[in-house]
């Protein structure tokens, strides 16, 4: 099994689509860093001057008017117009803050989770695609039949392919997340701020991205094996995204905690939120809807992904064990 | 040493087609392949040769029946003997974008054979330098050679070739034939499937003939053909009408074939020439027409209502 896994790793490395995939990942990584750098660049002196001027204007206006405005507001307040509203909230005129004018500063601890989260999607996709084609190509070319005349123990053959797909993507995931993290750190250190960085958070996120990348490759290999064609595997994913995540998820908001997308986010971001529309009829006969924000926990996401992967790997194994190979 | 390389009993496989119809590909096949020498596995298209071979190799599951390879029940104990079995099933299939050499190197690594063996088998099958080209650019003959090279990586005792000469030119056919004969002479067992008797009878020591997924005859080539039919003889004679009259009178079935006569059911052609010579009719040409596989088949299967 170890020997077979080694052979499969060699084969995966020698495939052209693997190289193309890696080239794509490198390009996207470079692009993400470029965009981050552009975003982090501070405003020019002229733009800063403009921002300061408009702040000063607004602040002066506020100074001149807020006392009077507030008094007016309280005087005309009619509690029946807007039942439930709080007079202190409605009639407060907050002071403009200088930091709201111009471009916000690039802060490493805020940028890096976003960036890694974005990277997790394309790494997942790259893993899935390369993993799927890695195994599906054997079935569409028929080479698997020849392979099995050399190693007829199907579970070993299956295990070695799955393991190779997953293992191959670990170093890639490590390199990409490391480059993104360090790149962003350098950018923030130069152009913004690296204050308040909790490295254990950052590393935790990066590790989770590596895990989901390997998971994507494993799932790709399983789906490629079951469907036997790369195109079919991609079609299945597209169909799932559009129909289940898109249409079904939009109409039945309550299923969101059971969709792959939200659980993926919950795992990578360590908790995520989703909105549920809650509508009620008011005593006055009006019908109002509010969005209630709910949290999907990291644990939920982790269990969801682990069980999903395990179930698919087992199902794929059973199918391969019983399948007639031509 | 077991005396049977392959043995099957009551082997059966049914396929379900897309439209839900069932096709019985192999129905109760009892096949025995002795150890050593070349064994022809003959049958017309669709008679279940490839299906049987796939079952032996554990690629597809049998619905019923038992199989042994070197006395080990397969597929259960296939892993024990797979190192002694090299097989090419239908057309050779490798990773198309990899070179022939890369394909062999991966297979060699998978079974723990040293890399230098790859160079050796490439030389043996005269692929040599072409091993550096991609498999998808190979001609059919080169693909076959690469497949043979792959089976030789293991130095197997049993080689299974499924229609190895499909699509080859005469030189290629002869080369494969010589390879098989050579392996047989080294004491290896070669099972070669084909639907062309002529292709196999020159190399095979023994044959099994199947039709509709069951065994119709087996034994040495001579036994099988001889046992199936008597020969048809084509004769050239000046006065064909007179000759036809004489032979018909002797109770033989005579047909005209251009400038020749065809006489069926002849066991000893000498008898035929004597009979005609007695009537001053001299045979200037006599060609025994061999029973080909098809006629053996038709004969073998006629009574069963299968053909
Ligand atoms: N995967 C399959 N699905 C459905 N039917 C099949 C399948 N493979 C083979 N068959 C059917 O099983 C029968 C036997 O096929 P098989 O390929 O074993 O014949 P064969 O003797 O090898 O023929 P050939 O000389 O043409 O190679 C045929 O009727 C074929 O149509
Ligand atoms: Mg066949």
UniProtKB/TrEMBL annotation, chain A:
TM region(s), chain numbering: 17-37, 121-150, 162-187, 207-227, 234-252, 301-320
GO terms assigned for molecular function: ABC-type transporter activity
Coiled coil: none
GO CC terms: plasma membrane
Key words, A-Z: Membrane, Transmembrane, Transmembrane helix
Presence of keyword Transport: no
A Pfam family matched in the record: ABC2_membrane_2
Keyword set includes Membrane: yes
Protein's name according to its UniProt entry: ABC transporter permease
Species annotation: Kribbella antibiotica
UniProtKB/TrEMBL annotation, chain B:
Keywords carried by this UniProt record: ATP-binding, Nucleotide-binding, Transport
Pfam families documented for this protein: ABC_tran (PF00005)
Residue ranges occupied by any ABC transporter domain in the UniProt entry: 6-237
GO molecular function terms listed in the Swiss-Prot or TrEMBL record: ATP binding; ATP hydrolysis activity
Membership in a protein family: Belongs to the ABC transporter superfamily.
Name of protein: ATP-binding cassette domain-containing protein
């Amino acid at each position: 099994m170890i020997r077979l896994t080694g052979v499969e790793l060699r084969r995966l490395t020698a495939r052209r689509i693997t190289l193309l995939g890696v080239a794509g990942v490198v390009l996207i990584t470079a692009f993400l860093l470029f965009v981050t750098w552009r975003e982090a660049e501070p405003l020019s002196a002229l733009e800063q001057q403009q921002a300061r001027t408009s702040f000063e204007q607004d602040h002066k206006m506020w100074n001149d008017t807020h006392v009077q405005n507030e008094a007016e507001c309280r005087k005309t307040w009619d509690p029946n117009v807007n039942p439930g509203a709080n007079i202190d909230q409605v009639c407060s005129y907050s002071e403009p803050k200088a930091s709201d004018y111009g471009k916000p500063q690039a802060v490493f601890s805020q940028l890096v989770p976003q960036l890694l989260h974005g990277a997790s999607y394309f790494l997942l996709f790259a893993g899935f695609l390369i993993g799927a084609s890695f195994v599906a190509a054997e079935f569409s070319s028929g080479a698997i039949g020849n392979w099995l005349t050399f190693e007829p123990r199907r579970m070993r053959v299956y295990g070695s392919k799955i393991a190779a797909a997953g293992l191959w993507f670990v170093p890639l995931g490590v390199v990409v997340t490391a480059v993104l993290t360090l790149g962003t750190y350098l950018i923030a250190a130069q152009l913004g701020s690296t204050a308040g960085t909790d490295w254990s958070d950052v590393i935790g996120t990066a590790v989770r991205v590596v895990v989901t990348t390997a998971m994507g490759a494993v799932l790709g290999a399983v789906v490629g094996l079951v469907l036997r064609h790369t195109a079919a595997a991609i079609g299945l994913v597209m169909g799932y995204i559009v129909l289940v995540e898109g249409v079904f998820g939009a109409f039945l908001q309550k299923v969101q905690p059971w969709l792959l997308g939200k659980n993926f986010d919950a795992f990578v971001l360590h908790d995520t939120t989703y909105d549920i529309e809650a509508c009620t009829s008011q005593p006055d006969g009006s019908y109002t809807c509010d969005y209630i924000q709910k949290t999907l926990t990291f644990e939920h996401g982790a269990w969801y992904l682990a069980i999903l992967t395990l179930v698919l790997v087992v199902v794929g194994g059973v199918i391969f064990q019983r399948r007639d190979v031509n | 040493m077991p005396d049977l390389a392959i043995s099957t009993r009551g082997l059966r496989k049914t396929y379900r087609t897309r439209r839900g119809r069932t096709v019985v590909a192999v129905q109760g096949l009892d096949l025995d392949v002795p150890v050593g020498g070349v064994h022809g596995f003959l049958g017309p298209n669709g008679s279940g040769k490839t299906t049987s071979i796939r079952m032996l190799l554990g690629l597809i599951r049998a619905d019923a029946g038992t199989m042994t390879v070197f006395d080990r029940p397969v597929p259960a104990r296939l892993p024990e003997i797979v190192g002694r079995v090299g097989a090419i099933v239908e057309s050779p299939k490798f990773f198309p974008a990899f070179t022939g050499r890369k394909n062999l190197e991966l297979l060699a690594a998978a079974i723990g054979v040293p890399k230098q063996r790859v160079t050796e088998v490439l030389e043996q099958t005269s692929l040599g330098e072409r091993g550096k080209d991609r498999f998808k650019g190979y001609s059919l003959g080169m693909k076959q050679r690469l497949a043979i090279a792959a089976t030789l990586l293991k130095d197997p005792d049993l080689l299974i070739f499924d229609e190895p000469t499909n699509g080859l030119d005469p030189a290629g056919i002869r080369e494969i034939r010589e390879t098989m004969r050579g392996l047989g002479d080294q004491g290896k067992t070669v099972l070669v499937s084909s639907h062309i008797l002529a292709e196999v009878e020159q190399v095979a020591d023994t044959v099994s003939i199947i039709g509709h997924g069951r065994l119709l005859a087996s034994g040495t080539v001579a036994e099988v053909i001889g046992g199936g039919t008597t020969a048809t003889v084509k004769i050239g004679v000046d006065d064909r009408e007179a000759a036809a009259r004489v032979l018909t009178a002797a109770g033989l079935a005579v047909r005209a074939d251009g400038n020749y006569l065809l006489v069926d059911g002849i066991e000893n052609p000498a008898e035929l020439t004597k009979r005609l010579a007695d009537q001053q009719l001299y045979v200037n040409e006599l060609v025994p027409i061999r029973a080909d596989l098809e006629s053996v088949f038709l004969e073998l299967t006629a009574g069963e209502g299968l053909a």
